[in-house]
Amino acid sequence: MSSTRSDIINKISKNFPNLLKKDIIRFVDIFVSEIIKALKNNERVELRDTIGTFETRIQKKRISLNPKTLEKVEVPEKKSIIYKCSKEWKNKINEKK
Predict the structure, then answer these.
(1) Which of these, 28, 45, 69, 92, is most buried using a 10 Å CB contact count?
(2) What is the dihedral of CA 39, 30, 86, 15, to 10 degrees?
(3) What dihedral do alpha carbons 18, 21, 24, 28 form, nearest 10°?
(4) Confidence of residue 97 (pLDDT cuts 50, 70, 90)
(5) Is residue 55 a contact partner of residue 44, using CB atoms and an 8 Å limit?
C-alpha cells in the first residue's frame, strides 16, 4: 500500500484534530516545496533521526539503445535525486511485530 499526499494530510488531521485542514495542506505544500527548492540549488536536505537525507547527483550523458528499434540514442546529462533512509526509520520498518 502506498501513501498519497491526500492520505498523509488526512492522517495528520486525524492525529491533530485541533488543526484546520487548510493549514495542514499549506504546511505539506510548503514542506515539499522547500525540499524541492533546496535540491534545485544543489543543496543537501538532512532530516536526521526522523526521515533521512535527500541530495542530487549528476548522471553523465551517455549513449543508450532504443529497445524497440535498436537505434542508438544520446541521453543528455541530468540530475537525479538520491534518498537515504535514517537509521531510526530503518529500525522501525524492520522491527518484528
Answers:
(1) 45
(2) -170
(3) 160
(4) low
(5) yes
| Cα 59 to Cα 69: distance, rounded to the nearest angstrom | 24
Helix/strand/coil for 4: coil
5 CB burial (10 A radius; 0-12, 13-18, 19+): exposed
Query: Cβ(56)–Cβ(38) under 8 Å?
Result: no
Angle at 22 between CA 28 and CA 16, to 5 degrees: 75
Q: Mind listing the pLDDT tens digit for each residue in 30-89?
A: 999 999 999 999 999 999 888 899 999 999 999 999 999 999 999 999 999 999 999 988
